Amino acid sequence: MKLDDEYKVIIESFDMNGLGVCHIDNKVVFVENAMEGEEVIISITSIHSKYVFSKAIKILKESPNRIMNLEETNKLSGEADLIHVDYETELKIKENKVKTTIKTNSQYTLNPIIKSDNPYNYRNKVMMPYQEIVDSDDIRDVVYGFYQKKSHNVIPIENDILTNEISSKILYLIKRYLVLFNVSIYDEITQKGIFREVMIRNTKNNDFMVVLITTKNYDFSRLIEMLTEEFKEIKSIYLNINSKNTNVVLSDDFKLLYGTPTIKENILGLNFEVYPASFMQVNHKQCEKLYSEAFRMADLKSDMNVIDAYCGIGSITLNIAKKVNHVYGIEIVPDAIKNANNNKIINDISNATFICGACEEEIKKLVNKEKIDLIFFDPPRKGCAKEFLDTVISMKIPKIVYISCGVSTAARDIKILEENGYGLKEVTPCDLFSKTSHVETVCLLVRKDTK
Ligand SMILES: C[S@@+](CC[C@H](N)C(=O)[O-])C[C@H]1O[C@@H](n2cnc3c(N)ncnc32)[C@H](O)[C@@H]1O
Questions:
Q1: Mean pLDDT, residues 331-352
Q2: Residue 356 catalytic?
Q3: Ligand 1 centre from 308 Cα, in Å?
Q4: How far is the CA of 314 from the centre of ligand 1 (A)?
Q5: Which residue from 7, 179, 222, 374 has the highest number of Cβ atoms inside 10 Å of its Cβ?
Q6: Distance of alpha carbon 323 from its chain centroid, rounded?
Q7: For the segment 1-48, what is each residue's pLDDT rounded down to a tens digit?
Q8: CA 142 – CA 24 distance, rounded (Å)
Q9: 169-172 long-range contacts, Cβ below 8 Å, gap at least 24?
Q10: What is the pLDDT of residue 278?
Q11: Residues with beta carbon inside 6 Å of ligand 1?
């Protein structure tokens, strides 16, 4: 077997990320964009000692659960790797991913996945790179879309399936402006040009924030007029100047060009101010369902002292404050803590304390302060630091509600907790990232010596 070799195969199953799986010469072969039960011609893309990667190049017998043909799938799957799979099958893939990843000694209940009512157009934050193209007649055009896998070529997409309709229209108007006013587009290879990317954020109330990312200062007054005349929903426009040749899209250099510095979000009845760099869950409706499930597991009581570790702008912290005695939110990003303290005032909450720093360090300061009854963890995809888990274990906190966007790191952390006095009781997957293989989970762990 060598690269680009072609084989006719039958896909035996899905792997846990929704890749097709088959066997050739006793080797496991993973197949991009192929579905269980399909008969497919594949082409080998990389060879490893125990497994092989390949992509589907022709479908001979199609799955009844396929909703997009192979050509379109190959074009769009870089952004949404389950784009070709119907929603029921997608949910089964995700439930199976959680079930096979969280291997435990505890007899826990795996609840059904929390479905989304609309698996499309749900993102409340989009980032789109722009690129210049010149055709054979030397006519210049500007496109925007997603980077092709393992490359920096933009695949043009005007109506992306995950982006909401207004954001799509805003992106298109910006493209028209860039063409009409001949604004140069940044080229990563020559490192010349001005315009790089656009970020758009929106909230439940339909307030929009637009961030124009450039390599240097530029007069966008005409674009601002065009945008605000056409879209009354735009409440805030920023310029972000990022002159570095880097994969990090946003710099710290934000300038407010129009409107208010923040837009307002409402989560489960509380108000939150969103700055351009604030962390918010990308799927608002599913985020509310996720938090509600976490609060059900927590069984909040008015005499409880609680920690919300990795708290971001305090969306969990402040939502539980009114139901408990006191809550401490810990977060490493200083701006997020500034934001959280402001959100505390807006919502008239007095029993929440926000602490800025790394959870693994800051939690130690709470060890002898007061008895903690419950802790929420909502770490980034890499999971919790071991040092943080050691302190939680030493504090003998009776109950943990672990929210995770990285099920394999959650499984690793749960194993450590199980080896140190905790039992896993419940796991609920939640579809926060429809059409992609990412899955959010919320898990309840209880100390075995808790009465
Ligand atoms: C998945 S987000 C969760 C935020 C929040 N709970 C929410 O639902 O919006 C993870 C947060 O952890 C923060 N973070 C990352 N590493 C951290 C650390 N070592 N200590 C404290 N916070 C950290 C990030 O800045 C981010 O705000």
A1: 95
A2: no
A3: 10
A4: 10
A5: 374
A6: 28
A7: 899 999 999 999 999 999 999 999 989 999 999 999 999 999 999 999
A8: 44
A9: 169/230, 169/231, 170/198, 170/200, 170/208, 170/210, 170/227, 170/231, 170/234, 171/126, 171/128, 171/144, 171/198, 171/200
A10: 86
A11: 279, 281, 310-312, 315-316, 330-333, 336, 358-359, 378-380, 405
Task: Return mean pLDDT, the chain.
Answer: 95
Convert the pLDDT of each residue in 420-438 to its tens digit. 999 999 999 999 999 999 9
Q: Whose CA is nearest to atom 12 of ligand 1?
A: 310
* pLDDT cut 70: percent of the chain above it: 100
Which atom of ligand 1 lies closest to the CA of 308?
6
pLDDT, residue 245, reads: 87
- Give the integer Cα–Cα distance in Å for 197 and 247: 12
Q: Tokens in use for 314? A: 């305090």
Model confidence at 451, in pLDDT bands (50, 70, 90)?
low
For strand 326-331 and strand 352-356, is the pairing parallel, antiparallel, or unpaired? parallel
- Spatial distance between the Cα atoms of 55 and 32, rounded to a whole number of angstroms: 5
Please state whether beta strands 154-156 and 140-147 pair in parallel, antiparallel, or not at all (unpaired): antiparallel
Summarize pLDDT for 276-297 with one digit per residue, the tens.
Answer: 988 899 999 999 999 999 999 9
Round to whole Å and give the CA distance between 375 and 422.
Answer: 13
- Strand, coil or helix: 335: helix
Ranges assigned E (strand) in 38-157: 39-47, 51-61, 109-110, 125-134, 140-147, 154-156
Which numbered atom of ligand 1 lies nearest the CA of 336? 27
For residue 401, which of 430, 426, 418 has the smallest C-alpha distance? 426
Taking the centre of ligand 1 as the mean of its atom positions, its distance from the CA of residue 392, in whole angstroms, is: 17
Among left, alpha and beta (phi > 0; psi -120 to 50; other), residue 182 is left
User: Active site residue: 311, 405, 430, 443, which one?
Assistant: 405
177 CB-contact burial (10 Å; exposed 0-12 / middle 13-18 / buried 19+): middle
- Atom 13 in ligand 1: residue holding the nearest Cα: 310
Ligand 1 atom nearest residue 333's Cα: 25
